[in-house]
Structures are given as C-alpha cells and as structure tokens.
Amino acid sequence: MKVVFHLPDQIMPLGQVKVRHVAHIAYPIQKNRGGKRPLIISRECGTLLDGHYSYTALRKFCAVYAPCIEVDYDNIDEVTAWRENELATSQNARRAASNGAILPSKTLKHLLKFPILPIRAPLGELRSDELRSTDQIDHCYQTESS
Fold first, then answer.
1. Residue 45 lies in a domain
2. pTM of the model
3. Which domain holds residue 45?
4. How many domains would you assign to the chain?
5. Three-class SS of residue 40?
C-alpha cells in the first residue's frame, strides 16, 4: 500500500486517547526524529481507524503532514473489540464514523487483510509546510523493506 499525506486537521479521529499514554508514543517519535508506522484512515471519509496515539503525538509536535495509508472497508478483514463483553462490528464502526462519534479509547480493533510495513517519516519533514513532489515523498517515506 502506498503512503499518502494528509493534513492532520482533515483526519477525523474515531476514538479517544489517554493523555498519559500519548507520552509513551511521543517519546520514541521525538527520540527517533520521526515515525515508523503510518496512520490508517478510511479512504471514503478520512476517519482515523488505527494510530490515534501517533496522530495525537504528531499534533503535539505541530506536524503539518501525517503519513497515512488509506483503506476501504473491503480491505478490513475484521473489526473486533479490544475489551471482552463489547460488541464491535464494521457496521458499528461505519455508523460511528459517519456520525462523527468519538468512541472510548481502544474500543475497536481493525484487522487488515495486508501487513503494514514500517516507514521512515522524519519529523522535520512532517513539520515542513512546503508541499513536496511525489518523487520526493516516495523517496523520503519509503517502507523500510524497500
């Protein structure tokens, strides 16, 4: 899957985050001067499906761009609940996304039909307000396996 870039303001989080946990995610991003995993968003509506803590950390670091992989619900193998005794379905997830609902932290787990490869996403580049050409983006943000 190709990594694309979205303005953080155009991504709609689906779940809440626990502020104290954001620091655990933000520290490696700051220490490594960048992220290693793209956000997973819905292609059809820009809803954030996976990566809420990384998204919050990128906002904290004033990132202008967020590396994302866009997926259709056809690419989602299963939607499950993180906690026992909770009902989670793709219909519930779609309904919440279309209504702009913010669910409690770690409510839904989206299992994809393909692996998410690590990327190199330098924080300095994500903070830059200069729009990069596609060639520059592909070079800077290639997966670590390429």
1. yes
2. 0.77
3. 4-75+117-140
4. 1
5. strand
CATH number for 15? 3.90.1530.10
Q: Which two tokens stand for residue 99?
A: 């209504």
Name the token pair of 87.
């009902």
CB 52 within 8 A of CB 40: no
**Do residues 117 and 35 touch, judged by C-beta distance below 8 A?**
no
Decide: 15 and 52 in contact? Cβ < 8 Å. Answer: yes
116 contacts 69 by C-beta, under 8 angstroms:
yes
pLDDT in tens, the chain (146 residues): 789 999 999 999 888 888 888 888 888 888 777 778 899 998 888 888 889 999 999 998 889 999 999 988 666 666 666 777 776 767 777 777 777 777 777 777 777 788 888 888 888 888 876 544 334 444 343 333 43
The tokens for 86 are 């909770």
Backbone angles phi, psi at 19, to 5 degrees: -55, -40
Please check whether residue 112 is in contact with residue 40, taking contact to mean a CB–CB distance below 8 angstroms.
Answer: yes
In a domain, 82, yes or no: no
